[in-house]
Amino acid sequence: MAIPAVDPHRYAEQLAEKRAYVEGLFAPFAPPALEVFSSPPSHYRQRCEFRIWHEGDDLFYAMFEVNPDDPKDKKVVRLDQYPVASARINDLMPRLREALLASDTLRRRLFQVEFLTTLSGEALVTLIYHRPLDADWEAQARALEDELGIMIIGRSRKQRLVLTRDHVWERLTVDGRTLDYQQVENSFTQPNAHICQEMLGWARDVTQGSQARDLVELYCGNGNFTLALAENFRRVLATEISRTSVASANVNVAANDVANVSVMRMSAEEFSLALKGEKSGRRVAEMDLSSYDFSTVLVDPPRAGLDEESCRQVSEYEQIVYISCNPATLAYNLTQLSRTHDIERFALFDQFPFTHHCECGVLLTRRER
Q1: Backbone region of residue 338 per phi and psi (left: phi > 0; alpha: psi in -120 to 50; beta: other values)
Q2: Which pLDDT tens digit goes with each residue over 73-110?
Q3: Active-site positions?
């Protein structure tokens, strides 16, 4: 793992390099002009995790630099501050470390710390141990919650002690509207909230004019895009395989008073079979697929992208909104999707400044058959 060398003065330069890379990679598809959405040049990650490194009476936050030529060659890097992380995380890092140093109960066999924060300053800190946690640990951790104004979860093998709650509430502003998102500890959420707002605004913009038809969303997570796009469609059917994410998505639908969304626990592969009438059962019956008139599909797949069958499935829709965290697999999928669809919009979202990672979005429209 390479630790980003954050230099705000070089931000424009590194973003230009990413733009050139993405434009070159997708040139064979003759896309429209690339829309580029920049990130704050520092303090952009709302969640981070660190190893806790013990040296005698000292302890500190650590990450590892791995030698690309020898994965077993790892260098411990001490981090007292981390400019990638949110201002709230940077504020908490030294204060939490001092509290840990002062308490044998809280520091003993502490292995890892995970921070989850929000734009409004909520903070959930997970302390992970290589030992069982007892009543003394809980009492001191509760006192630490009050001292730092945070929420704490303690984890060890077969233990998960939630002292206050296991989630934060992120509030994102999209097109002048505030959306509330429950973000659960140890579950996937978009780490760069500033860019997430840009992504949601872009997705809303490219799907304008679809109010008479329906949207199906694959890999919906906690309803991140689902809530933002609901106003653009008559109805939305969102699917996700993770139980935790489905539960959180349903909480978020209710919290935002969204009445036209249904969230179902089902993999993309299972949903494909259900659409073709090759899968039945209670969950398929509850979806009542015959009542939908889908015009648009939104996919936000893992880094591996879509498999060939999933590409074939989404190519049946008039519009495809494809959000990708891996331009290489997106380009590979476009070799198949571009046989039936044209790229109408094309975007780069700088989710992870000063790394090679790029987040892209494309809107594809099916050509007349």
Answers
A1: alpha
A2: 888 999 999 999 999 999 999 999 999 999 999 999 99
A3: 325, 359
